Amino acid sequence: MFRTSDIVLIAVMVSAAALTYKTKREAEEQLAAVHKIQAQIRYEEDTIDLLKADWSLLTQPSRLQKLTEIYKSQLGLEPVNARQIVGLDDLPAKPVNIEDLSSHRLGGMADIGGKDPAVTGGIVQ
Predict the structure, then answer these.
(1) DSSP state, 2?
(2) 91: CB partners within 8 A, 6+ apart
(3) What are the tens digits of pLDDT across the range 72-119?
């Protein structure tokens, strides 16, 4: 009934159809991925445009001048002068006093001598 050449031809046609379907499905998946990436690009571009608009609004000279006036009038603040800022190297070192380290000033209990002092926070009063 069927010859061998007919069976081979049917097998080739079926495999060609399956390969065509597989290629079409992969192309549709890649097209969907491209559309998804394009949508993400549009979203990111819109976000960037929104941030640029916010930045231009926040850095308007008239707005900054208003904020300066508000800080001066309502809060009583003044601009920082460069001489107000002192580095750690410019601060004088505090001398250590040996008397500050004595047991009397630290509330040592060795000098009580049988008295019952009122102790608050470890300091003899």
Answers:
(1) -
(2) none
(3) 887 776 666 666 666 777 777 776 666 655 555 555 555 555 555 554
